[in-house]
Specification:
- With 369 residues, the chain is an alpha/beta fold.
- 44% of the residues lie in helices and 10% in strands.
- It has twelve helices and seven strands.
- It has helices at 58-61, 65-71, 114-120, 139-147, 162-171, 183-207, 226-237, 243-253, 261-309, 317-324, 332-342, 357-366, and strands at residues 46-49, 78-81, 96-99, 103-107, 124-130, 174-180, 216-220.
- The radius of gyration is 37 Å and the shape is extended.
- The chain starts with 45 loop residues before the first strand and ends with a helix.
Length: 369
């Protein structure tokens, strides 16, 4: 059978006859963006965040309720005012207090400011840098850092430069330096850095018996991108704040921070991971509570059966309580006393005549008629 070329019928649609209903593009769709809503209006606006203990996993940091209160400063809310009208360009070179009084955010150059470090009482520094750059603050030291590897072709975790190292050593400041190769490496460091910050705050509190407050400075080259992302991740994971509120809060405290679309998407992915983990451990806690309640009920039913087997059943609860006291919730020694008393034979209660009535009756019988 001979192939006949296909031809369009007179009523068929062709490209020229299609009317575009809305603008469209032929490129691949872009991933959704995480927008920070603008709330500026007349006057000053603020963002208020409050810690949520329900979102803090005790198993993750091995904390009890007392230490959780130390980390969140007694569950005290924090408020950040919009500084758009008051922000000065020179403020980007200093560090700002994000969580009062325990968490700061600023550039790497702040580590060389001895007066600031001592005056604020910083006890720990978290430095986030690109792994391939090193952390040397001097030219020759930085070049040497770039050429070194750990023997497997991977640059080592960077260290502080001479000036910053001198200040931190003189003041006894703990240093946690981490090198990341990109956003994927940064998101893997979030839980580690959050745990280190939490454990440091708890350690300072325990070491000083509550007299000293740990203070952590998080910094990167500018204090505006990677270190700011670490602070946002800390608010989302440890304080249980929503991502949008955390982004706005940090922006209001340090107006020069800048997160690109990729960074905000990675932070959104991290929040989704945390929400899934929270749902899992909260369900586990609910199951544990139900199991404990069922075990308590089973023990109570077993006790009732044991009491009923010796004639101490539920039908005589009022009499039992009158004689022995309520056995429910009794201590082990009380229960032992009850068991010992059950083996004794008690005469029934009799209605005895009033005192002296028997003597008067006897006198009446002997009285001569």
């Amino acid at each position: 059978m001979q192939n006949v070329p296909h031809t369009l019928s007179p009523g068929s649609l062709i490209r020229e006859s299609i009317t575009r209903a809305a603008p469209y593009d032929t490129r691949p769709p872009s991933p959704p963006t995480v927008d920070i809503p603008a709330t500026r209006a007349v006057g000053r606006n603020s963002v208020l965040i409050a810690p949520s203990p329900r979102n803090l996993d005790p198993a993750l940091f091995d904390l009890n309720s007392d230490y959780a209160s130390v980390i969140t400063h007694g569950l005290r809310p924090q408020e950040a005012l919009d500084q758009a009208s008051d922000w000065e360009y020179s403020a980007r070179r200093s560090a700002q207090k994000i969580i009062d009084p325990s968490l700061y955010l600023g550039p790497l150059s702040v580590l060389r400011d001895r007066e600031f470090m001592k005056g604020e009482g910083v006890t720990m520094v978290v430095v986030v840098r690109d792994r391939i750059m090193g952390l040397g603050l001097g030219g020759g030291h930085q070049q040497h850092q770039q050429q070194r590897t750990d023997g497997q072709g991977v640059p080592p975790v960077p260290t502080l430069g001479p000036a910053a190292k001198k200040v931190t050593e003189e003041l006894g400041v703990q240093v946690e330096a981490v090198g990341v190769g990109g956003l994927q490496g940064l998101i893997r460091e979030f839980p580690k850095l959050n745990e280190k910050i939490v454990r440091h705050l708890v350690a300072v509190h325990k070491r000083s018996l509550g007299a000293q407050q740990g203070k952590v400075l998080v910094c990167c080259e500018t204090g505006n991108d990677r270190s700011a992302a670490v602070v946002v991740a800390y608010l989302v994971e440890v304080w249980g704040v929503g991502l949008i509120e955390a982004l706005r809060f940090v922006l209001y405290r340090r107006f020069c921070v800048a997160w690109d679309d990729d960074t905000r998407r990675y932070l959104k992915n991290y929040e989704d991971i945390l929400m899934a983990k929270r749902a899992r451990w909260q369900d586990q806690e609910a199951n544990d509570r139900d199991a404990a309640a069922a075990a308590d009920e089973s023990r109570m039913n077993k006790l009732k059966r044991q009491l009923a087997s010796v004639g101490f059943d539920d039908d005589s609860d009022d009499e039992d309580e009158e004689m022995w006291g309520n056995y429910k919730g009794a201590s082990s020694s009380s229960k032992e006393t009850i068991h010992q008393a059950r083996g004794r034979n008690f005469a029934p209660f009799l209605d005895l005549p009033p005192r002296g009535a028997e003597h008067r009756n006897n006198e009446g019988e002997n009285r001569p008629s």
